[in-house]
Amino acid sequence: MSTPIKRVVVVGNGIAGLTAADSLRESGFDGELTIVGDEPHAAYSRPALSKALLLDGDDVSSHELPPATHGADEILGVRVSGLDVERRLVTLDDGAALPYDRLVIASGSRARRLSDLPEELTLRGLDDAMSLRGRLAARPSVVVVGGGPLGMEIASGCLAAGCEVTLVSEGLPMIARLGAYLAGVFVRAALDRGLTIAESGAARLERHGGGARVVLNDGAVVEADLLVSAAGDVPNTEWLADTGLATEGGLRVDARGLVRPEIAAAGDVAAFPSPGGARRVPLWSSAIEQAKVAAAALVRGDETPPLRFQPYFWTEQFGLNLKAVGDLPVHGAPAYVEGGPGGPALMRWSHADGSGVAVALDYRIPIPRLRRLSRAGA
Q: What pLDDT is stored for residue 57 in this prediction?
């Protein structure tokens, strides 16, 4: 770009913000770089929070990432309160204002709550995970509301910690994310390990005695010592309310992650173009790929190739490990490339255009090979 870039501000210290900062340096930006994060912690692995970190063991380092090398000035534990697009200023809730030549918005998302009850716990950040981990040491009974990947991973971790666990789900757990075939595999494993599943329509939370309980749509009640909800996420765009940039579905960007020539967005807050319209893809791998492209586009503009992203999904729960490349959910039964039903397997679901979804279930395979297997002609 013709205008010199002297100062870049990155809002968000998650994996999207961290990757954007690294990618800015790799793209040749050597000026003043500032990262603002509302958590007081250094960047960490969010997927680990509902997996290894919840297990009842002595290791509490599974979420840690290598120290950052981008050399940015990090302002942590401070929230961003506003953005002046014309003056190119980011304002913080402590009254400070940060000027920028280029801006990366990676403010992420927060847990969607089902009530305003303080007894409703959610698992989104490191502090949430450490608090829940500490409470599980007493082996409380637990009810988890939400049958998606996060809810199932939380339920799995609570069971592994020795708790009695009930999962409340709208329909079969994991079916919306994976499809009936793979969801059935995980539900069978969960039931075999002692999980109680209550399928319900829209459940509600209500106060009861000194805590809270879940009332199912048929009037049945589920009570436990701890109540954890996993009902999706909400993009953090309130600080952009006066800019006209944000929509209910997040921050719309072009194929290179740009909102405007001087503003990029990546991660859970960004809605990238797709065949079905602009959509957020709140996955760890998506945040990384988006941030690489968006940061490069701020420096190089149209010279940057647009995002070409293959969705990658990974989960560990109830003794199973699944890695998938391609658009989920899948429909029908798979073709088994290696292995077979009831054991470790490499599977593929094919589409009419020759592309497909490649899934490894308890099967060791390099991710590049899994990606190749999902492509047309594999």
A: 65
Is 192's pLDDT higher than 50? yes
Q: Report whether pLDDT(180) > 80.
A: yes
When comparing pLDDT for 213 and 378, which is higher?
213
Tell me the torsion sign for CA atoms 346, 352, 354, 356. negative
Q: Classify residue 278 by burial, with Cβ atoms within 10 Å: 0-12, 13-18, 19+.
A: middle
Paired tokens of 217: 């749509």
How do residues 105-117 score in pLDDT, each as one tens digit? 999 999 999 999 9
How distant, in Å, are the alpha carbons of 254, 288, 354 from that of 203? Answer: 37, 34, 41
More confident residue, 5 or 54: 5
Main-chain dihedrals φ then ψ at residue 344, nearest 5 degrees: -55, 140
Tokens 């757990």 sit on residue: 173
Backbone phi, then psi, for 55, in 5-degree steps?
Answer: -65, 150
Tell me the domain boundaries of the chain. 7-110+233-303, 120-229, 312-374
Tens digit of pLDDT for each residue in 355-378?
A: 899 999 999 999 999 999 998 666
Q: CB 9: neighbour CB atoms within 10 A?
A: 25
Structure tokens at 134: 């500490």
CATH class of 120-229: alpha beta
* Strand, helix or coil for residue 5: coil
Q: Which two tokens stand for residue 285?
A: 């791998």
Domains 7-110+233-303 and 120-229 share a fold: yes
Amino acid occupying residue 254: D
Q: Which CATH architecture has domain 7-110+233-303?
A: 3-Layer(bba) Sandwich (3.50)
Cα 218 from Cα 222, distance rounded (Å): 12
If one counts every other C-beta atom within 10 angstroms of the C-beta of residue 230, the result is: 27
* DSSP letter string, 85-147: TTTTEEEETTS-EEE-SEEEE---EEEPPS-S-TTEE---SHHHHHHHHHHHTT---EEEE--
Pairwise CA distance, residues 250 & 366, whole Å: 33
**Residue-by-residue DSSP string for 175-239:** HHHH-HHHHHHHHHHHHHTT-EEEE-SS-EEEEETTEEEEE-TTS-EEE-SEEEE---EEE--GG
What pLDDT shows up at residue 61? 80
Task: Give me the pLDDT at residue 147, please.
Answer: 97
